[in-house]
Design brief:
This protein is mainly α and 161 residues long. Helix content is 61%, strand content 4%.
């Protein structure tokens, strides 16, 4: 096999070998592996089999991202010797988002303001794509924060008059 995948495909190198070669070049990046699989011209069942083979299903990616965030947090603690800020409570727990949009501490149940969740996401040593996914999961994107601030401002305005 050569470095030119298109040429390999023309001479009959099996597709799975081509995919495996592409994946081997980014084996430590699960999101990149998933992207390679999703770009293939295969039926959805075959893609799902590849995702399971290379451990890049949706559930696997969430586990990888959580582990990466935990490792980054631990490295920071080891380096600086102090815990990272954890939100409105002093618990070292992850925030939970309820269907209503309310964000609270898993451990003690204290409510987290959306701006605090956003600040913690922005502090993490993750790539921007992962941060954006976390912002979407916790509903703290720029647009959602702006909408919340507008709603709070309108809610406060009638009281002031």
């Amino acid at each position: 096999m050569s470095d030119n995948w298109a040429a390999d495909a023309r001479v009959g190198v099996p597709m799975m070998q081509l995919i495996a070669k592409q994946i081997s070049q980014c084996k430590d990046k699960p999101r990149a592996i998933r992207r390679i699989i999703d770009q293939q011209w295969l039926d959805e069942e075959s893609k799902q089999q590849l995702r399971e083979t290379f451990h890049v299903t949706d559930a696997d990616l969430l586990v990888h991202e959580r582990e990466a965030a935990d490792k980054a947090r631990l490295r920071t603690r080891e380096r600086y010797g102090i815990p990272l800020p954890t939100g409105p409570c002093s618990c070292d727990a992850d925030p939970v988002v309820h269907a209503s949009g309310r964000i609270e501490c898993q451990k003690c149940g204290a409510e987290w303001p959306a701006a605090e969740v956003r600040r913690l996401i922005d502090l993490q040593w993750l790539d921007e794509e992962s941060k954006q996914q976390l912002r979407k999961a916790f509903r703290v994107t720029d647009a959602e924060l702006a909408a919340r601030e507008d709603a709070e401002a309108q809610h406060r305005s009638p009281r002031a008059s």
